[in-house]
Task: structure prediction
Amino acid sequence: MKELEKTKEQLIEETEALRRRIAELESKIAASESKAARTDSIPKERAPRTEINASIEFIADFDIVEAKGINFSDSGICFELNEDLPFEMQFSLEGKIHRYRACLVWVKRMCKGGYRFGMQFVPPEAYPRF
Result:
């Protein structure tokens, strides 16, 4: 049937079906991009991990950070940064204080609430003189 011969109801039904299909495909694309990001971001040779149970104090040492908005909705926003987010941190392990400077690499929202962060150690910066 030609488009001009279709009723309003038929056109609405087709439009709704197309919107459902687009949402389904966007969901598949997002899932595959998320999977690719997870596998691409894991280095082939990772440094060995050591389990710790320590309280960590950290301070974000940035003022205003410029970001590029990607998209937003009534419930949130997506944006990108062109620079690292550095943090100073310290924790006690086996009675010894460890101090590091690190940049945020990844964030994962935990299913029971809260977040897990992946940080990469970077060289410390000198404190400014006043």
